[in-house]
Amino acid sequence: MPLISRRGLLASLMPQPQTQPNILFIMSDDHAAHAISAYGSKINSTPNIDRLAKEGVRFDNCFCTNSICTPSRAAILTGQYSHINGVNTLDDSIDIKRPTIATHLQSFGYQTAMIGKWHLGTQPQGFDHWRILPGQGVYYDPFFLEKTGRKQYQGYCTDIITDFAIDFLKERDASKPFFLMCHHKAPHRPWDPGPKYKNLFDDKDIPEPSNLYQPVGRGLKMRVGEDTTERDLKMKPPEGLTGDALRKWAYQRYMKDYLRCVQSVDDSVGRILDHLDANNLRENTIVIYTSDQGFFLGDHGMFDKRLMYEESLRMPFLARYPKEIKAGTRNSDISLNIDFAPTFLDYAGMGRDPKMQGESFRQNLQGRTPPTWRQSMYYRYWMHDDRDHHVPGHYGVRTKTHKLIRYQTTEPEYELFDMKKDPHEMTNLASKQPALVATLKREITRLQHKYGDKPYELSSSQ
Ligand code: CA
């Protein structure tokens, strides 16, 4: 046999060095960026999540295209807006025939796994291994759905999800690259802390946001105090407490439990990073930490999300990949949850799926922003006036400097904010700056056309 052929044969029999990077996607539920110390939190410390910022990149303008759990998860998997992937509201399920980042990566040789909160109605597709919480799941002694059926596990949900993720890393086929989605239930409502942190913050008050006592309009049912329940607060409010005093008291109650839940998520990130580092997986693994959307931490007097305001719209996004991402960098490019799937395809060497509407931000992660990168983002919330929260449907545009929101009201109703001068969105400038409103309306129209969405039909004066 000629030498060259023998070499070729030998090469084909030898284990090939893994060139595709592993992708470890850690996502929590409702974890706002302003409850992460790497993002400058004034209320808590998250040393393990901060490691990703120190050893990788922090994205400061990563936004959700529809700030609610199920739709954001579908947007992440499909790389598409809600009106395209069909998951507009919490009640929608993802179509099992629809290609996702998981089906793509699986077909390209990745070993794929989904562990934790799924919340997409139908069974996960494209995953070699999955263990998911039914629906929202519970914090203590949770059931999990697996390929073999339904099984209950003793313990605290965040710790169990972490154990399962590490089990997968230990037991996987090491000859293949892996794609692991590790999705925490925490720190979603009703904020049940783990045993380790039940008494964290007992001896201190959580600092209040500057606009905690802002009146909450529009009939929104997301008011801290009036709308937080006994289940949320784990007790009835003291007799006679009303108004600002009730809000002050309820803020401490729910925020302490929320932050206690966050602390267990932070521990989880630390355990997973330690496992990667100890098992020679650091260099060739992209590690992401994000959340399905943001959350109001008493901001504007509210809890929950849904609205296009910053605290709800912004997703934390931290990434470590020593081969390509410089440690300790920051990026302010506008990135979206629909960009995640195209980015992972890019890393896997798969090119683009033309049906995905997002863009790969692999270059942005390296600090090399493409000159044609987007300067604005389109947002749309579809659960118009739902029974529990009474948030109107709305859509809008966010640029680096401004935001225009159009509410789903019979008479067109707009909010315009100057994001540089008024980062907390306290002053609606819509009536004062008609020229800018007109410019941003045109930008909404352009983006609706680009993404295949339509304006409200109930008004002709769009
Ligand atoms: Ca969520």
How does this structure look, described?
A hairpin with a 5-residue loop joins strand 15 (402-407) and strand 16. This protein has helices at 3-13, 47-55, 69-78, 82-85, 101-107, 157-171, 230-233, 243-278, 310-313, 340-347, 362-365, 434-451, and strands at residues 22-28, 57-59, 62-63, 111-117, 129-133, 143-146, 149-152, 178-183, 285-291, 317-320, 329-331, 335-336, 376-381, 394-399, 402-407, 413-418. It folds into 2 domains: 19-196 and 247-370, Alkaline Phosphatase, subunit A (3-Layer(aba) Sandwich), CATH 3.40.720.10; 393-451, 2-Layer Sandwich (Arylsulfatase, C-terminal domain). It has 462 residues and is of the alpha/beta class. The strands form 3 sheets. It has a 10-stranded mixed sheet with strand order 7-6-5-4-8-1-9-10-2-11, sandwiched between helices. Strands 13-14-15-16 form a 4-stranded antiparallel sheet, with helices on one face. The protein binds calcium ion (CA). Residues 29-30, 69, 188, 292-293 line the site of calcium ion.
Fold blueprint:
Blueprint: H1 3-13, E1 22-28, H2 47-55, E2 57-59, E3 62-63, H3 69-78, H4 82-85, H5 101-107, E4 111-117, E5 129-133, E6 143-146, E7 149-152, H6 157-171, E8 178-183, H7 230-233, H8 243-278, E9 285-291, H9 310-313, E10 317-320, E11 329-331, E12 335-336, H10 340-347, H11 362-365, E13 376-381, E14 394-399, E15 402-407, E16 413-418, H12 434-451
Helix pairs in contact: 2-8, 6-8
Please tell me the CATH architecture of the largest domain by its name: 3-Layer(aba) Sandwich
Please list the strands of the largest sheet in the order they lie side by side.
7-6-5-4-8-1-9-10-2-11
How much is the radius of gyration in Å?
23 Å
Individual helix count: 12
Number of strands: 16
Bound molecules: calcium ion
Q: What's the CATH topology name of the largest domain?
A: Alkaline Phosphatase, subunit A
Number of domains: 2
Low-pLDDT parts are: 1-16
What class would the helix/strand composition place it in?
A: alpha/beta
Strand content: 15-25%
